[in-house]
Design goal:
60s Ribosomal Protein L30, Chain: A; about 70% helix; rod-shaped; five-stranded mixed β-sheet; about 10% strand
Length: about 375
Amino acid sequence: MKTLKTLLLVALLGAGTAGLSGCTSAQKGAAGGGLAGGVIGAVVGNNWGMTSTGPATGTAVGASSGVAVGGLAGDAYDQVTRADVERELDNLRAELEAREAELADLRGAAPDPQTLAELEQARERLAELEGKLADAQAAAESEAAGRAQSDEELADLMAEITQLRSQLQQKEDQNDVLQAEVDRLQEEIQTLLEQIDSKEDLLAGLEDEVEILRASLTGKETAMEGLKSELDDLNVRLEETSRGLTMTIVDSLLFEPGEAVLTGDGRQLISDIAAILNERFPGREFVVEGHTDNQPIVHSGWNSNWELGAARALTILHELTDFHGIEPQNLSATSFGEFHPVSTNSTPEGRRQNRRAVIVILPEQLPVQRETLARAQD
């Protein structure tokens, strides 16, 4: 107790005489009182066995009280004498005793060890929770960053999906166009195949017709050779022309000069020719032509070579129809006079060749030929 009092006095007196020049006595006293109160509080807190916070608590209480007391003491010092100071010291001692009583009360109210242990556990728990909170905050921030990245990736994926859908739609549209084109081409191909089948059928038919015609021509060639040989024996020339087959008979074999009446040999020759026509060309049409040279009519009484040629053609026509069964509807006669010569009229031999009768066997229009002609016209 004496030590505390001594410390207090030393602090008060030291504060008044220390190097606080320029300060009032009240300020010096407050400073000294705060210093003394802090020292006393620390000593008391240490001696009374408080916890580790005891000296600090004592210092805080003592300093607060010392400031108040020191300020009063400094102020009184300016107004009273030293004796008054001593009296005030007594008062301060009483005040100090009151503060010591308060400290004793505080000591009695200090927490017990269990409470301090619980406080320490609470502090540890608080630290633990604060650590978990920090971890949770860090995790939340990381998760937020990850979510932001995920959102960004999701946005990229959605954009890519949208682009792919657009591309897919374009492909589907292109596929529809291509499919329509494929369908059109398939229809055209089917049409072409049908046309090809039709043409192949037509070609097959034509090939059959060609074979028929070839066989017919082969037969006709053979027949022509035989007919030529047969007509050669009769001094009749057989030719194949654009008009048809022609049988040319010189007039000297049929008529006397300037006459239009058949001689006996001439009638026999017409009979032989009629037999050939009936046998080889039944139902065919024939034209009988009369031809002369260019010598003028002098003694025969004909008006011109036309009349002579026409009379001879009609004579042959009547011989064929009247005596040899040639159908009249299949016969006609004409005269070319001197105007279709086959040789020169300047020589006797040439004029002899020009004086002639010609039987034209008109071409036969076979059913196959008629059908072919009809298709060609279509």
